[in-house]
Amino acid sequence: MKKYLFLTIITLCCINIAFANDTAQELMPVLKQLNVELLQFSSKMYSCTPHKQQLTSYSRPVFYEVVGVEGNACHVIKEGQDCYYPKNVIQNYALKRIQDYKSNIDNINKKQSYVSTSANDEYYNQIDNQYCK
Fold it and tell me: What average pLDDT is seen over the chain?
């Protein structure tokens, strides 16, 4: 009886691992596309060039927009928030984002796996909390 219980547990574990690997492989193209789209948007943020973009990799429509320079700030609309980043802040912020997205895309291409390489999440949250409404 213990032998069958043990075999059942091992079988269920193997099925779960196989399912997780299959699901992860199906997500790779979506995650790559998301990083490519966010890389493109971050490039526009860096230069504060007016640009509208719908992220197609989400299951629902998500719109991002660089409105352009307003006064001494770059006006960006993302995730339903109006953000007014000072010029020096937006360039540093966008450059870090660009580096993170490029690194994520490289990891997906090389390993066919996805682990966000961003060590900057706290920085992004702090900047967004300060300049977005």
Answer: 80
